[in-house]
Amino acid sequence: MMRLPARLTAKLAKVRIAQIFSSARESSLLYCVDPGVILHPGADAPVSREKMRELINNRAPVVWVGGSEPLHHSGVGHFVRAVARGGRFVFLETDGTLLPRRIHEFQPLPQLFLTVRLRSFEDPGSAFAVEGLRAARLSGFFTAVHSPVHLEADLVHLSPLRAFLLKNDVDGWLITAGSSDQTIVRKTAEARILIPSSFWRQFSEDVEEALLSQTQAREWKGAQASLTETPHPEAREEGIGIA
Question: pLDDT value at position 28?
């Protein structure tokens, strides 16, 4: 298992130093993009101009493309190439199912990591994930595996996965907490010891922080929208009175 590319390591270090000397923590390591939000369904190239401006204005060195399955969007290959050629490192997270059929839509750029989500070989879709990972490796891409940890996860199942990744020269392994629940966070920290590279262990923590922040922001927006849509009890009573 290799280290992170030297250029990416340098960029991450620069941002961390900036964060230390900035109380506002304006700089971020990762920018998370849900392709279901930024890409127009059914279109090969067009994307949301507003979301693209937001992405361009955010100078995080890493763009994490995940959330909804990226390969369900026909324009994702074009989008990833544009972001990577702009100097960002892109981690495209997929369950791997469609990767063998759509691998030709991507180019093996030094800034692109095709990242397959695989928690263990016990997962029902693990065979598809492994096949997608194999297709990416044979096509010359940098590859990584993302293993989110949930409450019911049995860490014993991670050891065979570790052996598989080492045997097959997968470039990186990310282990992150599936939620901010403290039990899961502690379990994830324990599981992360299995990652043989200190660089990927640290980067796992960075990815975890970004993904959990994104989840919390989405939940907050959902709660706010729910409050806005729900009529106030007094308003309902007033409406009844007028009727």
Answer: 84
Can you tell me whether residue 58 is helix, strand or coil?
coil
**Edge-first strand listing for the sheet containing 62-65:** 30-33, 62-65, 89-94, 112-117, 142-149, 172-177
> Where do the domains of the chain lie, and which CATH numbers do they carry?
6-242 (3.20.20)
Q: What secondary structure letter does DSSP report for 40?
A: P
* Distances 88 to 38, 44, 125 between C-alpha atoms, Å: 17, 21, 30
Write the pLDDT tens digit of every residue in 189-200: 999 999 999 999
pLDDT at 236: 42
63 — phi, psi (to 5°)?
A: -110, 120
Place of tokens 């899961």: 184
Task: Give the 3-state secondary structure of 65-95.
Answer: ECCCCHHHCCCHHHHHHHHHHCCCEEEEEEC
In DSSP terms, which residues pair with 94 in a beta bridge?
Answer: 116
The lowest-confidence range among 5-9, 63-67, 69-73, 182-186 is 5-9
| Nearest of 7, 6, 69 to residue 34 by alpha carbon | 69
21 SS3 class:
coil
CB atoms < 10 A from the CB of 242, how many? 5
C-beta separation of 204 from 176 below 8 A = yes
Gap between the Cα atoms of 123 and 118, Å rounded = 8
- In whole angstroms, give the CA distance from residue 121 to residue 22: 43
- What is the Cα–Cα distance from 42 to 46, expressed in whole angstroms? 10
